[in-house]
Amino acid sequence: MLPIRYVEPVYRPPSEAESLILPVTDGCSWNRCTFCEMYTAPQKKFRARDEDEVLASIRRTGELYGQQVRRVFLADGDALVLPTRRLLTILAAIRSHFPAVRRISSYCLPRNLQKKSQQEVNELAAAGLSMAYVGAESGDDAVLAAVNKGETYASTCAALEKLGSAGITRSVMILNGLAGQSWSRQHAENSARLANATQPEYLATLVVSFPRGEERFRAAFPDWEPLAPPALFAEMEHFLSALELRRTVFRSDHASNWLILKGTLGADKERLLAQVRAAMVKPAAAGLRPDWARGL
Fold first, then answer.
1. Mean pLDDT over residues 265-272, rounded?
2. With pLDDT > 70 as the criterion, what percentage of the chain qualifies?
3. How many C-beta atoms lie closer than 10 Å to residue 181's C-beta?
């Protein structure tokens, strides 16, 4: 019998490839974003896992691999929906049974931090929560409403500031192309405004994609028109141009991206802009990822 019960499919950020995936919830408590297909499978209906089951999983896994585990990712979609007391109990158990752990992380829905005081978030940081992945998607309220994100610029900004004040590393994701053709520029500019206001430690962009089809997305956003690669590059140029970041690791290298970008902002801003502009002028010479290799 495996020490941890998994409900497929299981998702985690790319940077958690070597982490122990520890489910403390199943699915996503919001699960209404029209662009997201991660937790729509019937078996992924949201539920908080029984605390005794989680603690038993930690204990059994610790008995087998306790000295080998360096990183733990709290799954599924938003572990921070759990009450602070329960999270503190889980974090204490992780520290006890995995003495070599150096990082504990989770996804974070901004709405869930509205229910936690700054003191509670500080306590989670002190107990070992060291990194949170926030899918902001956009900093534009019109776009967020159109895709039923359930968040606003203000709610996302408040959550990122609360995490930052606690010393929790923030990894923010923006969806390139999410706004379609009509709102592309305001999506780029307001997403940059969000990043500038919060100065996250990590910032990434993915290209919006629909492996299972666009029907669900278009039902709520009927005027949406996709961006071809040249328009995606133009949106990226607007985004990068508007960024005023002091020291943020930037990545645009997910499988969904045609153009791979890596750097630190602001030190590499001009180099990244030059790379994007070159792709706009001569895409054939830009080393774009071929469509078959995008893994979608």
1. 96
2. 99
3. 15
Q: What are phi and psi of 144, to 5 degrees?
A: -60, -40
What domains, with CATH codes, occur in the chain?
1-107 (3.30.750), 133-296 (3.30.750.200)
Cβ neighbourhood burial of 242 (10 Å; 0-12, 13-18, 19+): middle
Half-sphere exposure at residue 124, Cβ-oriented, CA atoms within 13 angstroms:
34
Count the Cβ atoms, other than its own, within 10 Å of residue 234.
Answer: 17
Per residue in 140-179, pLDDT (tens digit) is 999 999 999 999 999 999 999 999 999 999 999 999 999 9
Residue 122, number of CB atoms within 10 A of its CB: 16
Rounded to 5 degrees, φ, ψ at 174 are: -120, 140
Q: Distance between CA atoms of 226 and 208, rounded to whole angstroms? A: 9
Pairing of strands 25-26, 103-107: unpaired
137, β-bridge pairs: 174
Could you give the CA distance from residue 148 to residue 153 in angstroms, rounded to a whole number?
13
65 contacts 99 by C-beta, under 8 angstroms: no
Mean confidence (pLDDT) of the chain:
95
pTM for the model: 0.95
Contacts of 222 (CB under 8 A, 6+ apart): none
For residue 204, count CB atoms less than 10 angstroms from its CB and return exposed for 0-12, middle for 13-18, buried for 19 or more.
buried
Q: Using one digit for the tens of pLDDT, what is the confidence trace for 171-225?
A: 999 999 999 999 999 999 999 999 999 999 999 999 999 888 889 899 989 999 9
